[in-house]
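On clarity, I found the account of how folds are encoded harder to follow than it need be. What matters is that the chain and its backbone geometry are given together, residue for residue. The format is easy to grasp once an entry is in front of the reader. For illustration, here is how one protein appears when written out as sequence plus structure tokens.
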Amino acid sequence: MANDPAPVAETKAPMPRFVLVCLGLAGLAITLHFFQGLSSIVAPVFLGLNLMIVAYPLQLLMARVVHRYVAAVLTVLIVLALLVVFLGATAWAGSELLLALPRYNKEFIELWDNLSTWLGTVGISESMLVDQLKSINAGSIVNVVRPLLNNVSSVMSLLATVVMTVFFLGMDSTQIRRRLTVLGGMNPRFTDAIMAFSQGVRRYWVVTTVFGLIVALLDVWVLAILGIELIWVWGVLAFLTNYIPNIGFVIGLVPPALLALLDGGPGPAFAVVAAYSLLNFTVQSIIQPKFTGQSVGVTPTVSFLSLLFWYWVLGWLGALLALPATLLLKALLVDADPKARWINVLISSQAPPRAVPQRTIRKAAPPEDTGTTADPPRGDDAPAVREGRDEKR
């Protein structure tokens, strides 16, 4: 019938918060399981992306002189040459260390005797250690060697994936600026987040490389003063482990400290530990953060947790890519979403500005009546005034 009221649209009640949290955790678990299964592909592809992001400003400079496709090819060749240099330095340091170890057999035996004597004082006899060593047979040795051989093959496949990723990204980089311009008109927040991620990754790798060289040279200088052998091997190791946040310097510290212990005793070993700790704390914890800036500024706790998290997700390469991966996650989930930017207050290393307390904000007093002509009525009062004027007429 005509007088029947129109049907009212039913509004669905929002889902309870715990249901949304459970759904989010379930989706996160599925996503992490997916990336863990593809870690051998995701990690090298992301490494190649990082390398091309760092080299892109050099490509823009060369594009001013030569054709853009020629600049892209030259950029790819430069990135691959840097990879060869890194791998060559790592192989050289490892070979020098393997050649030097046999010269310290006597010192190692003496260290073993001293360690056995000390363990005997705490209730662990040498026979117990010998029994544990006798349990090692050919099968256990094969079980240890087999993962190493598998790692060699996995490293070669990883390098092949990185090389192919760098090549194809280099070809696509000739049109990336045009694509970002079009994307900026369609989704400016997402484009700004991606640009911030690129700048943060570029600054992170450049600053980490520069300060890694500084720390490595300082370590070599200190080791030369202390008279430790293989100083350039330890310098290369310190430079390479500098890319692993938080715990990298510990990995680079153990071999030279152990060699100092074998060669000179506890005194030189303690001197190496003290010098490494002082240099790394001063450079990496005080000076380096001033240059990285807010683009990669996350708290030390977030940095350490991201190291553990991405190592668990992507393997050993995830430890190298921990901070760039965290920056990408932050750009996609936090920076691109205005409703989620409050998370930066909790994870950013830059202290947020002090908020003004609500009780200090006072409501402005209404203007006093000065007897002047009031403004013409607006809104709902206007029809009533018009009716009064009509009655007067």
Remarks:
- The two ends are 44 Å apart (CA to CA).
- The chain has one domain: 38-126+149-349.
- The mean pLDDT is 75.
